[in-house]
Amino acid sequence: MTDRKLLNIELHRMSPEEYRDSPGTGIVVVLDNIRSAHNVGSAFRSCDSFKIDRIYLCGICAVPPSADIHKSAIGAEFSVPWEYYDRTADAVGKLREEGFCIVSVEQTVNSVSLDDFVPSPERRYAFIFGNEVSGVDQNVVDASDFSLEIPQYGTKHSLNVSVSVGIVLWAAHRKPISRSTSGL
């Protein structure tokens, strides 16, 4: 059997304008002091892939326009809406006022395994991803409704933040939304 890669035109992707005009998913991403512009660009690219409503860039995050963001985002910074906040806590406060469930993607004493997370159809989610070295700031973890942990089985205790963004967004989209959740 031979197999052929699809041409880009055969993928039937939407334009940046269609992306912005299409219905939302109820999911936003918050980047808490991500130091690498390449990681920010990768997050844009993953957010575009999963049709995320908006990215909040906070603290030391690089912001578009940036050649380093563009290098890994390959244009996704033009389709995914974004906002910048000096303080992550301010973005979290805005999202809470808008009714989002605030979720820190972090290893904590009471974190919920991504394996056990079932999104509720009644909720909108703001997933917060933290700094490459120190993770999500503790005051942001404290302001969250809960923390979500990606199971890991090797010797390292963390994943690259851009990899974590892709894993969490993929999991949030592939799990069937159930009305019978464990309150998450």
Properties at a glance:
single chain, 184 residues, alpha/beta, Alpha/beta knot, 6 helices, disordered C terminus
Assigned CATH superfamily: SPOUT methyltransferase, trefoil knot domain
**What's the CATH class label?**
Alpha Beta
Computed Rg: 16 Å
CATH topology descriptor: Alpha/beta knot
Count of the separate structural domains: 1
What is the share of helical residues? 25-40%
Order of helices and strands: HEHEHEHEEEHEH
Shape: globular
**Biggest beta-sheet profile:** 7 strands, parallel
Task: Tell me the CATH architecture.
Answer: 3-Layer(aba) Sandwich
Percent strand: 15-25%
How many helices? The count is 6
Uncertain segments of ≥5 residues (pLDDT<50)? 177-184
Q: In angstroms, what separates the terminal alpha carbons?
A: 45 Å
Nearest-integer average pLDDT: 93
In terms of structural class, how would the helical and strand content be classed?
A: alpha/beta
Number of beta strands? 7
Cross-sheet strand order for the largest sheet: 3-2-1-6-4-7-5
Structural notes for this entry:
- The chain contains 6 helices and 7 strands, in the order αβαβαβαβββαβα.
- The protein is an alpha/beta fold and 184 residues long.
- It has a single domain, classed as Alpha/beta knot.
- Strands 3-2-1-6-4-7-5 form a 7-stranded parallel beta sheet, sandwiched between helices.
- The longest helix is centred in the last third of the chain and has 14 residues, at 161-174.
- The protein is globular.
- Residues 177-184 have low confidence and may be disordered.
